[in-house]
Amino acid sequence: MVFNLRNVVLHTAYVQSFIVYRSSGQFVNGRWVENTPTQITMQGTVVAASEKEIIALPEGDRIQGSMVFHSTEELFPTRNNGTSDKILWNNQFWKLFTLGDYGDYGFWRMVGVRIKGN
Amino acid sequence: MAYLTLVEFEDLMQSIFCSILEWESEELKNNVRISWPEEGQPAWEITEDLVFLRCYELDNSINKEREHTDEYQVSPDEFARDTKYSVLMAVDVIAYGPNSFENSRKIRDGIFAEEIKLILKKNDIYLLPKESQITPKRADEYFEGRWWRRTDIGFRFNEMMIVSTTIPAINSIDVEVYEGEEGSKIADINVSNE
Predict the structure, then answer these.
(1) Which residues pair with A43 in a beta bridge?
(2) With 70 as the cut, is the pLDDT of residue A31 above it?
(3) Which residue from A2, A88, B15, B145 puts its CA 20 to 30 A from A17's CA?
(4) Whole-model pTM above 0.80?
(5) Nearest residue of B to residue A81 by CA position?
């Protein structure tokens, strides 16, 4: 019997909504050209993967950080017809950096990196 | 201004290498790709023949010399100045795939072809064979348990840059002539271009 953790990910005590921006595109004369991304609202849990870190460069402070998103719908890394999913959560965009495919157990786990830079 | 932007230079090189490799069909023309995509781009399989181009400028003594040509224009009352100089452009070619080494050799031969030279010349770009690394360098990569075929080759070009600006003209100058070091003024002249 396969243990399904879907209900754990969607538990009302800590479930949140976030929007997945799913990329699609094509190569045009050697350059990757993105189409308008498809927006998909998903629900799941969101926890910190690492704390926000300030990198003090001579040119300014760069902010980096990452969050872990668990969802019950599939998330996509870069593939032939699109680049990695991005998630809009807490007014910030997070780009999929690692992906754990636990689809057999009812969920996907993604580590997203903060892409804003400042 | 008469010079290519970096993007225009990359696009020109992309079309030239497609032409050399005879990858001009809809299916193949995107197998010559530009490196450093801002948002990333899909990767490729070990069986795919692809070429990546990295284009950038290199520092060189040649880009420190300037040649100015000024041409007077009546209206508006100014000089049109063209500043010409040459820059050293680098194109690093990274070929992947089972035929990467042979494709690199094909590129090395094709870059010297007359029709390619003419295309480059039309854009004021000239190949520098002595400064280029035109020997294909085998550089296979070990990734996820397999050796991926890779060959590197590099070219250097001089590109002429023409920067156009305007210089205001001097309409008149007042000249005062004095006698000796602390003498009295002996002449008051206005020099004008009218």
Answers:
(1) A17
(2) yes
(3) A2
(4) yes
(5) B42
